[in-house]
Amino acid sequence: MTTDSDQALRALDLATAGLSVAKIATMLDTTPKEVKALIKAGKKQDPRDYDPDVEARRLDKMSAALWPLASQGDPETVGVVVKLMERRDTMDATIDGDLAAAVKATTKLQKAHRAQVATRADAE
After folding, report:
1. Which of 7, 26, 27, 77 would disulfide-bridge 70, Cβ 3.0–4.6 Å?
2. Torsion of the alpha carbons at 10, 12, 15 and 20, rounded to the nearest 10
């Protein structure tokens, strides 16, 4: 049996995942007004605290997944990786100068990729 507490956390999870209030209401067999109240209640009782270590690991995993494309100089991916690095850097105040070096390296990769693309375009 689902308790009100469970349903409130479920509504909060669904809202966090990006579902609309109407969709959540359909899924939970309730009204949109009740869903809004459930989300509000879920926010008050959410047992999950912000954990910087978990957040850092998530950012590291995302960076690792994107790194192959970024290292090939894909401009959009390089931009995303740089943003992830900036976010990660703000989480760890003990890092000095690493972000600047990373931005310099990714910018160099991006320029090299553009040059390579231009050379290929000229060859065609």
Report:
1. 77
2. 70
